[in-house]
Amino acid sequence: MEDFNAWDPQKDTIIIVTKARDNKLVSFTIQLAEWLIFTPRFGKKYPFKVYVDGHLKNTERVRQLVHPAWQSQLKFWNPKLCRRQSNLFHLIITLGGDGTILFTSSLFQSHVPPIMPFHLGSLGFLAPFLFTSYRAELNNLFEGRLTNKAHRMRLSCTVYRFRPSPSSPTKRLQTADGTIKQQNNDRLVSTETDWVQRAYDRGLKGDRCQVDYSVVPAQTFQVLNEIVVDRGTSSNMSFLELFADDRHLTTVQADGLCIATATGSTAYSLSANGSLAHPDMMCTLVTPLCPHTLSFRPMLLPSTITIRIIVPFESRHTVHCRFDGRSTVEMNQGDHVKITMSPYPVYTYSASDVSNDWFSSVQTCLHWNIREPQKALENVDQKKNSALFKHTHDNKFSSEDEEDVGLAPWTEVSSVLNRDNANFGKQYLVDGNEETCWNSEQGLPQHILIDFPNSVSISSVAITFQGGFAGKKCVLVGSIENSPNDYNVEVSTVYPEDISSKQIFTFDPTEGLKRLKIVFEESTDFYGRITVYTLDVIGRSIV
Would the keyword NADP be found if you checked this record's keyword annotation (predicted)? Predict the structure, then answer.
């Protein structure tokens, strides 16, 4: 197992895998490589050798690099180097999204160095780190402050080809259940051939073809997400035999089967109504694709079980085997694929911890179980002499008849991550876009200050954090009209959960406030960062 407790200064070789066909990431790649090479560390002037994609070697951006250190420290990788010399690299940095991580997994079909994934892609489910903070995150790694990691199981998938003996007579009989019993009258030539014979003898009944044969391993793939066996281009449904260890589970009549890891449970398997599985679970998900039955439900199996999928001779067509959506192999009648837990897992660093990263991704990327909250019932008598307002992310105060009762409030925040106001500034608290956010710098406490156009009575707040960067303890204090700079009115103290969905906190109304200050005294982030996507302040404007 990899040692994540401290960075070994002797580890001096880093590979950067950049999202393919995205030219804007070339400059980010060179920027990162330059920082890694030219930032002194561990008593070395040039501490790292950095490998980048060989396709960048002849680009104009790389040809402009003339410093002598570039010649000695900047190297270029290709798929053959990754496969044959995986132990050469000590760290993988990915710039892209989930597809880039899957591509990286395909490059390393044996040992995989730990991966530091920066989100520069589309979904970013597996990439919890923002590239805008790469210096801080990598400094934390090299200085031993970043040790959380996810152990992601892979599947080892071997395709076996059916090879009949040339001299073997074949006797074809009427079959009872659409499969063929295959029996070798000579000495078994391999363990897998022995298994095929025993499995057919024990699990399948009826008169079938008698033929001498062997099964020969053809190709092996290590997959991070899933292997999909489907009908390919055929218009007929797939006809497959599914085995778990020595037991025949079922005959599959469907578009196909998806065999996924816990990591892959949020990918193709999810689209086929498979269950979600935490990445720490060592399990295998068996999910049918459009089965032609009402009772073929997905299954969750222990990772110790060996799964085999056989294409019987009575299948009307061949099937396609797809490995992480990249490599495709056609399997003929008589072929099968054997699926086991790979001895080569993938380790990815986590921004906070594995659970926080995963729950946050489920909620923010997949919007798991997100809907508008049910509105509370309200007593009409409570509305006299005041107008209901809601200070929301769309930055409006509105009364019950939708008329504005004041100007948009002035808002202040304690800090902005990396001073990057363009991407993380306070304007994203009030822009009406739930995809943008205010992100604070490191350190506590952080705060948000709201200046109301009129005196208000506040009764509740609703806030949406990013999981892993939530305020664990939020103190709400206010000031009144005559003393706007003295925050001596205690409104409430709330304790949000570390989730990415909207949370509503209701408290006794506080009258006559001119300003509200929300102080985040504690954070679920180790470094004290706060990320807020939406903020609603609900109450009454005193008019």
Answer: yes
Shared domain check, 262 and 118 = no
- In angstroms, the CA 304 to CA 283 distance is 8
Beta partners for residue 448, in sequence order? 413, 518
Task: Write the CATH number for 39.
Answer: 3.40.50.10330
Is the confidence at residue 173, as pLDDT, over 50?
no
Q: How far is CA 472 from CA 43, 145, 316, 519, in A?
A: 39, 21, 59, 11
160 and 146 within one domain: no
Q: Give me the pLDDT at residue 393, please.
A: 42
Q: 46-67, pLDDT tens digit by residue?
A: 999 999 999 998 888 888 887 8
| Per-residue pLDDT reduced to its tens digit, 474-516 | 999 999 876 767 888 899 999 999 888 889 998 888 888 889 9
Tell me: do 186 and 91 sit in the same domain.
no
Rounded CA gap, 356 and 377, in Å? Answer: 34
pLDDT given for residue 50 in this prediction: 96
Q: Which residue has the tokens 């490059």?
A: 107
Residue 4 maps to a domain = no
The CATH code of the domain that includes 479 is 2.60.120.260
